[in-house]
Design brief:
single chain, mainly alpha, two-stranded antiparallel ribbon, 2 strands, disordered C terminus
């Protein structure tokens, strides 16, 4: 992009030259092909892939505990925002074979927890 003429804009000729310059630049920008948004952004990992990568990075002792969905969400990134919607994470966890349970005790405060299915829970391991 070229620089506009640096003259005193109080004169009529300088103002006309500046307007012509703006028209020229806008015409050049208009004629350039638009880049698709998908060309500009790197390919996005699915939530299942993000959760699986996070799960594999945990030590075996940590894999035995149960997790709240907010803990899992802190390790994922969304499509349009920094964090994905919790319902999308829940759907991804179900697709990966995780099971959910509630802690109905007074200390648990009825919170929902997620735990990955292990070989002791089922005969086959589904992505966990």
């Amino acid at each position: 992009m070229t620089q506009p003429p640096q003259k005193n804009l109080n004169s009529g000729k300088a103002l006309t030259a500046y307007i012509q310059h703006l028209r020229k630049v806008s015409a050049e920008n208009f004629l350039q092909p638009k880049r698709k948004q998908s060309d500009q952004l790197p390919p996005r990992e699915t939530l299942e892939t993000q959760i699986q990568r996070w799960w594999e990075s945990l030590p075996p002792a940590m894999q035995q505990r149960r997790f709240q969905i907010t803990e899992i969400a802190s390790h994922c990134h969304g499509r349009f925002r920094n964090k994905p919607a919790l319902r999308e994470i829940a759907a991804a966890l179900r697709a990966l074979g995780w099971r959910e349970a509630r802690d109905w005790s007074n200390l648990g405060r009825n919170r929902r927890y997620w735990k990955c299915r292990t070989a002791s829970d089922t005969d086959e391991i589904r992505n966990c």
